[in-house]
Amino acid sequence: MTTDLVRQEVKSTDGIKHAKKEVNWTKYILMSLMFLYLVVFLLIPLVFIFVKAFEKGAEVYFAAITEPDALSAIKLTILVAIISVPLNVVFGIAAAWLITKFQFKGKQILLSLIELPFAVSPVIAGLVLVLFFGPRGVLGPFLDEFGLKIIFSVPGIIIATMFVTLPFVARELIPVMQAQGKTEEEAAISLGANGWQMFLRVTLPSIKWGLLYGMILCNARAIGEFGAVSVVSGHIRGETNTMPLHVEILYNEYQFSAAFAVASLMSLLALVTLLIKTWIEWRTEKH
Amino acid sequence: MTIEIRDVSKRYGSFQALQNINLEIPKGELVALLGPSGSGKTTLLRMIAGLESIEEGIISFDGKDLTNTHVNQRDVGFVFQHYALFKHMTVFDNIAFGLNVRKKKLRPKKAEIEKKVYELLDLVKLSGFAKRYPSQLSGGQRQRVALARALAVEPQILLLDEPFGALDAKVRKELRRWLRKLHNEMHVTSVFVTHDQEEALDVADRIVIMNEGKIEQIGTPSEVYDSPKSPFVYDFLGDVNLFHGRLDQGKLKVGSVELNVPEYQNISDKEAVGYVRPHHMKIDRQKQSDDAIAAKVFFCHSIGPVWYVELKRENMDEYVEVELTKEEYEQLNLSVGEFVYVRPKEMKVFIPEDFVI
To answer: What is the CATH number for A163?
Structure first.
């Protein structure tokens, strides 16, 4: 949601530019403030991560990101993203479709529910999962009988990540689909298309950029989520550590270079994500 | 295909959108559903298409009940008010859509589809536009693509929802004439919705006038225009002057004036309203008969060859509009502020008891 806000702010300053010429000094003061702020809080720390990561040379850096525990953390993080993003896409499209194309009671409640993960601290989300699926939780002992372990294992991490990332796709799609209305779909149906053809040929192409944007945000969060995952993971090295958790462990063990090396890898992922996101925004604006 | 609509009603929550609609649209006719916004005309059209469910009543095509037939099985072509073209597809792909989504068995070969699309592009005078996207077309061109797209599947019935509503006046007139010509060539049963009387009178074989979810009158353009069955139809189909008065033995008494109404000989002392079209009014300098109403010239203006004279009735806060040809106007040589007499040449009287206005 924060990125969303930034995007809107950037857009609204665009409008001010065209307004009055005499208030230009306000613009410059704001711009310098903004610049200073971004440099101090974003750019310097980001550069610092890379500096710190390479402090003891490239060899140590590559050793840190190729040692078995690190590799397992990377693998697990990717696995979590690969499972949670597609599931969120399906849920997001279904929810956005339901909300924008149908009239029903409780629509507002559904909307609020979708946004709930934004409002709730991830730690609480993790705790709720422990209460539910933990060894002494409501469902835990029952699942245990079937040999299903959710908490302190991979399924728990995936569920926690899904909870936290749930709003991203739906939130991106709802305004897009609302703006589109349903006449194009009605046209497709009246021309003889069945529901599936209508979705693939008409709905999906018209929402694809919004969908991709939501997926990018969802993916970024899935990779970076710490709070909820930390509660349910149990921090078992080589088994239930994701990249953020691995960074924390290394840091706590005073392996700063290694911690920053893995952190730099994550930052790189984030930067790539940001680049793709910017490209998508540029494409959508062009359309 | 003949469309038959029997006792169809539609309700959205507490809002009664349609009430007991009975209508038969014969094969090959071009029918206009005409009415103000909120009259239910679009709802009825969408029900024929299957875009709205039918809960009460029956709609059948050639005697086949369609209540439970899905839109994509109804064989209708639907043209939307705002075109609803697929924005991400070229004009070619838009028109080919209906053929491309057919089941493999029924789908024409690629070359056949191509031939068909180019034929249709020719028909809607857009050859050379196949590779364009909808955003690169004008409103009129978009609407023609929408029409070609609907015709590509060779529908049995063509339904058009305010097809020219979003276009400017000149393009609208051109397009509706062209639609009429097209209909004469193709003879596909067509129904179009409009709130523009002129459009309906100009294009349709028959007009169905709707108001508040009910059908007010069905008839050919001249039938509905010349003999409106209700004050609503009279009012809706053109400008009108109203004369409120009392009906008594074949005369409508409006103040001191007595207007002749031979068709109501047997009614005595009832409130009634006389409806007179502006072009059925005559202006005289001298009082020539009992039905002449004294009025003062208030305002004159012309639109092309037609002159409109607005007059204020003597001692009353009511205005009368008279439509004159240029010659008539020049002969009269009226000046603003002058006192003259106006006289209805033709009048239709409605008794409010029968028709709530």
So the answer is: 1.10.3720.10
Q: For residue B50, count other CB atoms closer than 10 A to its CB.
A: 24
- With a threshold of 0.85, tell me whether the complex ipTM lies above it: no
Q: Does residue A9 sit within a domain?
A: no
**Is B101 in contact with A188 (Cβ distance < 8 A)?**
yes
Q: In this complex, which of A183, A186, A192 lies closest to B101 when CB atoms are compared? A: A192
| Interface test mutation site (partner A, options B80, B88, B142, max chain A beta carbons within 10 A) | B88
User: What digits encode the pLDDT tens for the residues B280-310?
Assistant: 998 988 888 878 888 999 899 998 889 999 9
Q: Using the 8-state DSSP alphabet, how is residue B135 labeled?
A: G
Q: Which amino acid, A51?
A: V
Q: At what angle do helices A68-101 and A107-119 cross, to 10 degrees?
A: 160
> Are A199 and A161 found together in one domain?
yes
Distance CA A131, CA A280 (A): 40
Tell me the one-letter amino acid at B60: S
Q: What integer is the mean pLDDT of A181-199? A: 90
Q: What is the CATH code for B3-236?
A: 3.40.50.300
User: How far is Cα B5 from Cα B204, in angstroms, rounded to an integer?
Assistant: 19
Q: Write the DSSP symbol of residue B72.
A: G
CA–CA separation, B76 and B98 (whole Å): 11
Same domain flag for A35 and A62: no
Is there a single domain that holds both residue A216 and residue A266? yes
pLDDT in tens, A114-173: 999 988 899 998 898 888 888 777 787 777 778 778 888 888 899 999 999 999 999 999
Burial A181-191 (b: 16+ CB within 10 A, else e): eebbbbbbbbb
**A49 with A153, same domain?**
no
Phi, psi (degrees; rounded to nearest 5) at B130: -55, -35
